[in-house]
Amino acid sequence: MSFATSTRRLRCAPIGGTLIFDGDCGLCQACVTWASRHTGDAVRYLPYQTADLATWGLKEHDCASAVQWVGSDAASATGAAAVSEVLLATGRYAPAGRALQVPGIRTVAALVYRFVARHRRRVPLGGQSCRLPAARGE
Questions:
Q1: Residue 28, Cα to own-chain centre: how many angstroms?
Q2: What's the rounded Cα separation, in Å, for the pair 47 and 22?
Q3: In whole angstroms, what is the distance from residue 138 CA to residue 134 CA?
Q4: 103: CB partners within 8 A, 6+ apart
Q5: What is the pLDDT of residue 131?
Q6: Do 106 and 4 meet the contact criterion of CB atoms below 8 Å apart?
């Protein structure tokens, strides 16, 4: 699997786009709180635990591993590419979103995203940390 943008066409995307995230993760919740202040109604945020994943064409394992973006055009992205889409929707931080799509930067961003996602339960945020159980070998 490539570390670059994962793109596929999905059904049922509302106008603007939807970010499907891990609602049990404190880091994810903090990022969504920040992003929602900057995107307004342009992005819908939906915890995968309450989403009908089949309707979105997603699998629980994929959503537990990385955020998922479903755009209004039914294009989708995962991980760092999904973060890029959210940043593009902010207006103010759109240049950062475009930078994350540049070849080379996109690959590094995907690697960093995967590292942070794997270790997110170790990041305490205001007394709230990821509620995921520790992975074996950590």
A1: 8
A2: 5
A3: 7
A4: 4
A5: 54
A6: yes
**Quick one: which H or E segment has residue 68?**
strand 68-71
Q: How far is CA 108 from the centre of its chain?
A: 16
State yes or no: pLDDT of 4 exceeds 50. no
Each residue's pLDDT tens digit, 52-97: 999 999 999 999 999 999 998 888 999 999 999 999 999 899 999 9
In eight-state DSSP terms, residue 57 is: T
SS3 52: coil
- pLDDT above 90 covers what percent of the chain? 65
Mean pLDDT rounded to a whole number for the chain: 83
DSSP state of 56: H
**What domains lie within the chain, and their CATH numbers?**
17-122 (3.40.30)
pLDDT in tens, 116-131: 998 888 777 644 555 5
Are the C-beta atoms of 86 and 100 separated by less than 8 Å? no
* 8-state DSSP, 125: B
Residue ranges of the alpha helices (H) in 24-93?
A: 26-39, 53-56, 60-65, 80-90
Amino acid identity of residue 46, one-letter, is: L
